[in-house]
C-alpha cells in the first residue's frame, strides 16, 4: 500500500491591504502617516523605524515613499478629473456648432478629442525611426603608439 502524502496547511495571513476601510488597512495608513510626519520633522529612517514600529529602516523608507507618492498622486488625479469636466462642457458647445456645419467648431472638436485622449493615455505611443551615422576613429594598437 503506497504511503499517504502528508499535506500541511499553513495558517492564512490576511491579505496585505485588504479592503480600503478594513482595520488592518486603516492601521497601516496611520502608521505610514506617522512615518511621514517623523520624516518631515527631520528624523532618520532608522529613527522612524524605531518610533513608528517598522522592522527596518528600508521598511520605514518604503512607507514614507508610498505616502509621498499618494500625496502627489491624489491632487493630480483631481486635476485630471477637473480638466475632463471642462473639456466635456467645451465639447458640448462645439459639437452642436459642428453639427450645424461650422468648420472651425469641427476643428475645435478634433482638438478637444485629442486633448482628452492625451489626458487619459488613450493614444498608442508613436514609433519613430532614427537613422544615424557614427564615425569612429581607430585606436592605437598599443599604449606606446598612443603616447
Mean pLDDT: 82
- The count of strands amounts to 0
Determine the structural class based on helices, strands and strand pairing. Answer: mainly alpha
Please, how many helices? 5
**Rg:** 29 Å
Report the helical percentage. Answer: 55-70%
**What portion of the residues fall into strands of 2 or more residues?**
under 5%
- Distance linking N and C termini: 82 Å
Low-confidence regions: 4-14
Shape: flat
The profile of the biggest β sheet is: none
Element string (H = helix, E = strand)? HHHHH
Keywords:
147 residues
What does this structure look like?
There is one protein chain. With 147 residues, the chain is mainly alpha-helical. It has a domain at 23-121. It is 62% helix and 0% strand. Helix 1 packs antiparallel against helix 2 and helix 2 crosses helix 3.
Topology of helices and strands:
Layout: H1 23-40, H2 45-52, H3 57-99, H4 103-120, H5 143-146
Amino acid at each position: 500500500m503506497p504511503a499517504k502524502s502528508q499535506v500541511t496547511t499553513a495558517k492564512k495571513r490576511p491579505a496585505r491591504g485588504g479592503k480600503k476601510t478594513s482595520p488592518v488597512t486603516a492601521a497601516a495608513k496611520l502608521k505610514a502617516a506617522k512615518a511621514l510626519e517623523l520624516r518631515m520633522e527631520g528624523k532618520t529612517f532608522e529613527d522612524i523605524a524605531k518610533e513608528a514600529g517598522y522592522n527596518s529602516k528600508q521598511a520605514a523608507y518604503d512607507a514614507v515613499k508610498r505616502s509621498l507618492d499618494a500625496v502627489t498622486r491624489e491632487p493630480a488625479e483631481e486635476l485630471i478629473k477637473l480638466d475632463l469636466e471642462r473639456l466635456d462642457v467645451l465639447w458640448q458647445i462645439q459639437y452642436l456648432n459642428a453639427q450645424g456645419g461650422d468648420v472651425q467648431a469641427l476643428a475645435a472638436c478634433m482638438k478637444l478629442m485629442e486633448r482628452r485622449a492625451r489626458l487619459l493615455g488613450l493614444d498608442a505611443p508613436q514609433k519613430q525611426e532614427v537613422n544615424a551615422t557614427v564615425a569612429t576613429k581607430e585606436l592605437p594598437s598599443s599604449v606606446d603608439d598612443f603616447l
